[in-house]
């Protein structure tokens, strides 16, 4: 993994830091695994704006990713590592021995030509997916299920990983990327290794236009608004705006919004850090 700092030949390139893409092996996606992706522009079915600052952006096609890893005990070979415009992590194109191709989230260190598989009895090596009960303690894992058969929902973005801390009965203890420690059913699947593209956090856009390419529209500072538009608006001169809060009045910066009566609270052993 590497990043490149561009020469400041234009104002937009002066501070820009881009991905080196040295681990990407092809720029041609697998056509059989592409699907259309419709943009909503932040509007609901009635055409009303329900999410601000959305719209525009480059046209994309969705890559159908196998989050369940349910083709078990069939070996596959990594054909290529590819860029995905819909997520921060890279994708690995797998070709199974029966000829089927699937995309999976690529782990750090996954190489073209490497053999990966999923199942109860596979070795705990990078890229392999197996139930949490069969993974050794202390192993770095990612793409974790929360319900058996649901498919990976946790630790899927660039550079993230979790760690298997303990096993007790039908549950295992996992330390999440957020710092939260929680119980997960031992039957749930997880993939060995940290997610690829760990340098994603070092990237610098360099100009406002790049946010527009990503489909993000300009955002007005709340303190610059009128009281009718935002709780932090109004005041004489450059008023600070009081306590930081959302447009709906929910406080930001440390205010906890998780329900105290949520049924899954009993599985959380240690809350994430503020």
UniProtKB/TrEMBL annotation:
Subunit structure of this chain's protein: Part of the 50S ribosomal subunit. Forms a bridge to the 30S subunit in the 70S ribosome.
GO cellular component, one term: large ribosomal subunit
InterPro entries: NA-bd_OB-fold, Rib_uL2_dom2, Ribosomal_uL2, Ribosomal_uL2_bac/org-type, Ribosomal_uL2_C, Ribosomal_uL2_dom3, Ribosomal_uL2_RNA-bd_dom, Translation_prot_SH3-like_sf
Protein's job: One of the primary rRNA binding proteins. Required for association of the 30S and 50S subunits to form the 70S ribosome, for tRNA binding and peptide bond formation. It has been suggested to have peptidyltransferase activity; this is somewhat controversial. Makes several contacts with the 16S rRNA in the 70S ribosome.
Record-annotated Large ribosomal subunit protein uL2 RNA-binding domain positions: 42-118
MF annotations from Gene Ontology: rRNA binding; structural constituent of ribosome; transferase activity
GO biological process terms, semicolon-separated: cytoplasmic translation
Family matches, as PANTHER family: LARGE RIBOSOMAL SUBUNIT PROTEIN UL2M, RIBOSOMAL PROTEIN L2
Annotated Basic residues bias: 50-59
UniProt domain Large ribosomal subunit protein uL2 C-terminal: residue ranges: 124-251
Protein name as it appears in the record: Large ribosomal subunit protein uL2
A Pfam family per the record: Ribosomal_L2_C
Family, per entry: Belongs to the universal ribosomal protein uL2 family.
Keywords: Ribonucleoprotein, Ribosomal protein, RNA-binding, rRNA-binding
Region described as Disordered: spans on this chain: 34-59, 221-274
